[in-house]
Amino acid sequence: MADFSFQDAKDIINRICKAAENNEFPTRQSFMDMLQTNPHIAVQGYNAYAKIFFWNQASVNLYGYREDEAVNKDLTELILPPEMRGFAQDMITNGAKTGSMPAAGACDLLDSNGDYLTVYSGHVVFQWDHTSIPEFYCIDLGIQSENEK
């Protein structure tokens, strides 16, 4: 899977996060339709307990875990370095209460080999069908390292 320039990844992820904030995905299907037209974007769906329920092919390509290896696992334990896990849990808890997530940004996550990879990552939270159960989505694009430019 090709990595993106920092600016390209930032533009794409921020555009999707802004669209989510503006309620441009009124249903789960509208969000999934957008993902189908952007198959290069790695997306992980997870619940308020960080348990993964959605893992697309771009996530397989980026992180190296098959869908069956990722679904029902804890997102924070699967791809986040130990030093980020507490922050991520707090972010999810706050997102469940407020319906908002922190701004997107670049970060170093872990692949299936335990190697670091740099991604531009955004998070969105949805509460479709007027339920009280939020769905969270992490939206990632790999970023070219300075050595690859």
Quick overview:
By secondary structure, the protein is an alpha+beta fold.
Outline the structure in words.
The chain has 149 residues and is an alpha+beta fold. The protein is built from six helices and five strands. It has helices at residues 6-21, 28-36, 57-63, 67-70, 75-79, 82-98, and strands at 42-46, 52-55, 105-110, 116-126, 135-142. A five-stranded antiparallel sheet has the order 2-1-5-4-3, with helices on both faces. The mean pLDDT is 92.
What does the main sheet amount to? 5 strands, antiparallel
**What is the overall pLDDT average?**
92
Biggest β-sheet: strands ordered side by side in the sheet: 2-1-5-4-3
Poorly predicted residue ranges: none
Q: So how many helices?
A: 6
Assembly state (oligomeric) = single chain
What is the overall silhouette?
globular
Which structural class fits the helix and strand makeup? Answer: alpha+beta
Estimate the strand proportion.
15-25%
Q: Level of helix content?
A: 25-40%
Q: Would you count the extended β strands for me?
A: 5
Distance between the termini: 16 Å
- What is Rg? 14 Å
Q: How do the SSEs run, as a string of H and E?
A: HHEEHHHHEEE
Distinctive features:
single chain, 149 residues, alpha+beta, five-stranded antiparallel sheet, 5 strands, 39% helix
